[in-house]
């Protein structure tokens, strides 16, 4: 829809150009400024023709005589084309230039936010979605994107809060193996995963007897871990990884 409107608008500019040329040919007053043909750029982009669009749009974008409105149309069209072909950095560059020319375009803030998201830059994505909503609080796509990202950031924050922390309180760690787990981020994460996976398995047990059996397995693992740590040949990390796999299954579930 956005490209269709741009093409229609570009066609009007093209007609104006033809009219001015005709005036000049018949001795009329020549146009003060010759307008650049943006219609070819918009049409090529809408047709998803990368080769034609590259030439036609560059002719508009790189021409110092291009009117601001036409420059914005060409940049938006080329950015959309780049995005469809996963040329994310180029699309971001074009959208960024558009926003430098007209920072009041909520659609472009949202579009660039989605591009940042594809690159994995979630903070920048959230900023752009927020900017779109400041301009248009009822922008549906920006609202949905911002809400989804807010939840994602909250989830990431929760994960970061427990990262490197085991399932038990390190302040009360007395055994050597517990101190070793507290002192190693990877082992601490493994311990927390084992605890969480075991709790999930018990919750999903088919009956109380199965739940009791699962807990007994966990208790036996901890007893073997406590007794084995420090002995020659005992690999704590390997033992913990095997326990996690045992709980979750080979496929991780």
From TrEMBL:
Q: Where is the signal peptide?
A: 1-24
- Residue spans of the TPR repeats: 106-139
The record, for SUPFAM superfamilies, names: TPR-like
Top-rank lineage group of the source organism: Bacteria
Q: Name one Pfam family in it.
A: TPR_2
- UniProt cross-references to InterPro entries, sorted A to Z: TPR-like_helical_dom_sf, TPR_2, TPR_rpt
| Residue intervals passing through the bilayer | none
| Protein name per Swiss-Prot or TrEMBL | Tetratricopeptide repeat protein
Q: Which organism is it from?
A: Bradyrhizobium symbiodeficiens
């Amino acid at each position: 829809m956005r490209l269709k409107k741009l093409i229609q608008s570009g066609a009007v500019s093209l007609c104006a150009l033809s009219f001015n040329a005709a005036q000049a040919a018949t001795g009329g007053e020549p146009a003060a400024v010759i307008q650049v043909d943006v219609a070819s750029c918009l049409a090529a982009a809408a047709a998803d023709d990368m080769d034609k669009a590259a030439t036609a749009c560059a002719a508009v974008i790189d021409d110092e005589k291009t009117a601001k409105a036409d420059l914005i149309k060409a940049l938006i069209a080329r950015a959309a084309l780049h995005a469809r072909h996963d040329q994310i950095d180029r699309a971001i560059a074009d959208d960024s230039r558009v926003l430098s020319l007209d920072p009041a375009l909520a659609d472009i803030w949202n579009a660039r936010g989605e591009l940042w998201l594809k690159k994995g830059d979630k903070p920048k994505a959230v900023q752009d979605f927020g900017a779109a909503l400041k301009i248009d609080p009822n922008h549906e796509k920006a609202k949905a994107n911002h809400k989804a990202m807010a939840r994602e950031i909250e989830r990431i924050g929760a994960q970061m809060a427990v990262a490197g922390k085991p399932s038990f309180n390190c302040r009360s760690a007395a055994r050597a193996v517990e101190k070793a787990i507290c002192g190693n981020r990877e082992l601490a994460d493994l311990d927390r995963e084992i605890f969480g996976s075991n709790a999930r398995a018990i919750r999903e047990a088919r009956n109380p007897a199965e739940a009791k059996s699962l807990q007994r397995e966990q208790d036996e693992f901890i007893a073997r871990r406590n007794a084995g740590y420090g002995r020659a040949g005992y690999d704590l990390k390997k033992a913990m990884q095997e326990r996690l796999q045992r709980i979750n299954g080979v496929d991780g579930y």
